Amino acid sequence: MLIYELSLATVVCINIIQAIGLNLITGYCGQISLGHAAFYGIGAYTTALMAKAGFPGPVNLMAAMLLSGSVGAVVGLTSLRVREDFLAITTMGVGFLFLGIVRQQERFLGGELGISSIPSFGLGKPGFFGLTLILVILTAAFSLYLKKTWMGFAFEAVADDEDTARVLSVNVSAYKLVAFALGTAMAGLAGGLYCYFARFIVPDDFGFITSISVLSMVAVGGIGSVYGVILGTVLLTLMPDFFRFISDYKLFVYGALLFAVMRFAPEGLAGLPALVSAKVARTGGAP
C-alpha cells in the first residue's frame, strides 16, 4: 500500500473511532453534542504532552481516554438539567471553552502555534495503521455488544422518553453520565491517535467545524447504527480526496448532504435498504 493511501486509511480509522464515540452519546442515549471535538482535543493534547515527557505510547493513549472520559462525565453532570437544544448549546460552549483555554496557554500548550515535534508511536506507518484498525474493530465490537446489554436497553429508553424511563425505574442521570464518559473516552482515544499520526497539533484541529463534521458522519451514516456510522465516516472522509473540487467547498457539501439525508432518509445510509423495500412494497414493485 502506498504511503498516501496508508495515511488516508489511518485518518479514516481515527475518524471512525471518534464517530463511534459520538454515536454512543447521540445515537444510543439521545444526547445532542456539538462539542465532541473538545474531547478529541483533550486526548490529543494529553498525548502530546506525555509523549514529549517521555512516557510510552500505550500509557499515553490510556491517559488520553481517562482524562477525556473524566471531563466528559463532568460535562454530563453539569448538563443533567438541560435537554435537546439547551444541551446542544451547552456542549457547544464546552468546545469554545476548550479552544479558549488552549489558545491562552502559550507556555504549556503552545497557544496558537500548537505543539510540534511530537515523538512517534514507534511502529512505523504500516504498524500504526494496523494499530488504528485493531482499535476500530475493538471500539465497534464494544459498541455493538453494549447495544445488546441491559445498559444498551436503558440508553434506548432514555433516548426515547426520559420521563417514561424514570417511571420504569431507569436511573436516567446515571446512564447519561455513563454515555458521556464512554463516548468522550473514545474521542480522547481518537485524539491520541491523531496526535501520533500528525505529530503536530494546533487548536484549529479541534474547533467547532470538526464537531460538525463528526456529527455529519454520524447523521449521514445513520444515527444509532454502528455499521451506518462506519459507512458515513468512510464516505465523508474520502469524498474530498476522491473529488478534489469538493475540498474548497467541503462544509457546503457536508451541509447539503446532511440536509438531503435528513429530508429523504432520516435513518441515514443504514436505513436506505429498509426505505427502498418499503417504497417498493407500497408501489407493488411498479417503477
Overview of the structural elements:
The protein is an all-alpha fold. The chain has a single domain (3-203), classed as ABC transporter involved in vitamin B12 uptake, BtuC, CATH 1.10.3470. Helix content is 75%, strand content 0%. The protein has helices at 3-28, 36-52, 57-78, 84-104, 106-109, 124-147, 150-160, 162-167, 172-198, 208-221, 226-242, 250-264, 272-283. The longest helix is centred in the middle third of the chain and has 27 residues, at 172-198. It is globular and about 60 Å long. The N and C termini lie far apart (43 Å).
Observed structural traits:
287 residues; mainly alpha; ABC transporter involved in vitamin B12 uptake, BtuC; 13 helices
Going by CATH, what is the homologous superfamily? ABC transporter involved in vitamin B12 uptake, BtuC
Q: Which percent band covers the strand fraction?
A: under 5%
- List the secondary-structure elements in sequence, H or E: HHHHHHHHHHHHH
Total tally of structural domains:
1
Q: What's the rounded overall pLDDT mean?
A: 86
Give me a quick take on this structure.
The chain is mostly helical and 287 residues long. The chain contains 13 helices and no strands.
Record the SSE blueprint.
Blueprint: H1 3-28, H2 36-52, H3 57-78, H4 84-104, H5 106-109, H6 124-147, H7 150-160, H8 162-167, H9 172-198, H10 208-221, H11 226-242, H12 250-264, H13 272-283
